[in-house]
Specification:
The protein has 465 residues and is mainly beta. The protein has five helices and 24 strands. A hairpin with a 3-residue loop joins strand 12 and strand 13.
């Protein structure tokens, strides 16, 4: 080992391992009510608009968030301070086209005034360019239901499969918004992907085939942000590069049916992993090695089912993920210059919901991952388990909603707690409060984010035309 490498390795390897874990394993998951159900509601009206072929709905939201801990010197914001003064506008247009086709387009505009404040915070240009002003096209698709059982949908869309809240076993298609961790609802995290969906229903079964093109990867925070997943690598002097997948098309299939007291789904797919993994290390003997990240190609097969019995709802998933890139342990980081090893993993989920209390829903979920052909070069244990619990309570004729979530992460990596309180002042106005707390020890994948606890208030105005 050269002197430069000897100097670099002790300083970097611990940070590299934590960064690898953060990049590959972070999956923000926090269950709430189905966000998209609010979009699909048909509101009856007696005026002339009832017969029109279009509808426009949306909302304006103002969020103000305070960082209640000091994130540390790795990030742009290093002290207790405001970390968000975000105004956003969401709008969705639904209309009918000729030949029985329906068309939907939706988008969201953001402006965050926190990046214009003179509070002594030296934000990176990447943060300012990414978050000060941005625009997202969400849905953009056409769809048609045929009389012979076929259904067709083409364009930018959400395809939420599976039943689990905290583990992606059969929910394989959509990418995720990982700008923050556990501060958004699960349904808000999923991002639309360009896809073609063809479904056919016959008898009790529905068969879905999906092809995506350039679905991209999970969104991650920019340089300097308090959720920058590459921050430890950059601190260690690593040059980060990201490559495009060799194959840009992904293929998915699902067969689903309704049982007497539940549902059953069979899922298969060949796809690019939405989480980045290391593909190559070059200039490894220099003080500034180059790490090339990309999306490794995977295959998956799985089954998901639920069963209702009185006040109880049981749900579970079982899946086999093939060729998953796995994180090396600390001593093996520079032994895998050609990229991380690929292993097959068996993933399982078991959960239960109980709604026997008035206005209260309790949910518990246990997730596990078992790695086949486990070896001493891997960081994670052969068997990993994680746990999530959720309380959902309403009062005052459902005007007041309280949600509390607790996640125990795999490998005892840490805990995340979240409490949100929302009050519907009227049909148009909603106010809310959000608190998120992160806990971890020095060896956790969340160690760099341990002081990102926040307290946030928001005001939302809904409209419909």
């Amino acid at each position: 080992m050269t002197p430069n490498v000897a100097k670099f390795y002790p300083r970097a390897s611990h940070h590299l391992l934590l960064a690898f874990l953060a990049i590959a394993c972070i999956r923000p998951s926090l269950a709430q009510n189905n966000f998209f159900n609010t979009i699909d509601v048909d509101i009856e009206t007696n005026d002339s608009r009832a017969n029109e072929n279009f509808s426009l709905i949306g909302w304006v939201t103002q969020k103000v968030s305070q960082g209640i801990e000091r994130p540390g010197t790795l990030f742009s914001r290093q002290d207790r301070d405001l970390n968000r003064i975000e105004t956003s506008l969401f709008a969705q247009l639904d209309t009918k086209l000729g030949e029985g086709f329906d068309f939907r387009v939706s988008g969201k505009v953001y402006h965050d005034e926190v990046y214009r404040l003179d509070e002594g915070i030296d934000y990176s240009s990447d943060e300012t360019n990414e978050f000060r002003n941005r625009f997202e096209v969400r849905d953009f698709y056409i769809e048609k239901q045929y009389n012979n059982g076929f259904y067709f949908k083409l364009g930018n869309q959400i395809l939420a499969w599976g039943l689990a809240e905290y583990s992606r076993v059969t929910d394989l298609i959509n990418t995720e918004d990982q700008y923050t961790f556990a501060q958004q609802d699960l349904e808000d995290i999923r991002l639309q992907v360009p896809a073609a969906l063809l479904s056919y229903s016959t008898g009790e079964w529905t068969f879905d085939g999906v092809v995506t093109h350039r679905a991209n990867k999970n969104y991650t925070a920019p340089i300097g942000d308090e959720f920058d997943q590459f921050v430890a690598l950059r601190q260690a002097g690593i040059r980060i590069e990201r490559g495009s997948p060799d194959i840009e098309e992904e293929y998915f299939f699902r067969a689903s049916t309704h049982l007497s007291q539940g549902d059953l789904q069979l899922v298969a797919g060949e796809f690019n992993n939405n989480a980045l993994s290391l593909e190559e290390i070059t200039a490894e003997r220099s003080v500034n090695p180059r790490f090339q990240y990309g999306q490794n190609r995977m295959r998956a097969f799985g089954v998901a089912a639920n069963w209702a019995d009185g006040s109880w709802l049981y749900f579970g998933e079982l899946g086999l993920h093939l060729d998953k890139a796995v994180i090396p342990n600390r001593d093996s980081i520079f032994r895998q210059l050609g990229g991380w090893d690929e292993k097959d993993q068996v993933l399982s989920v078991f959960g239960v919901e109980y709604n026997g209390f008035r206005n209260l829903l309790l949910t518990f979920e246990l997730d596990s991952i078992r790695t086949k052909n486990h070896d001493a070069f891997m960081y994670a244990d052969k068997n990993q388990t994680s746990f999530g619990a959720r309380l959902y309570w309403t009062a005052l004729n459902e005007k007041l909603t309280v949600v509390a979530v607790r996640n125990e992460l795999a490998n005892e990596a840490g805990q995340v707690s979240r409490v949100s309180v929302d009050y519907s002042w009227s049909d148009s106005v909603e106010v809310g409060l959000l608190w998120v707390d992160y806990g971890s020890d020095r060896d956790s994948i969340f160690y760099n984010f341990r002081n990102n606890d926040i307290l946030q208030v928001h005001l939302r105005y809904n409209f419909q035309i």
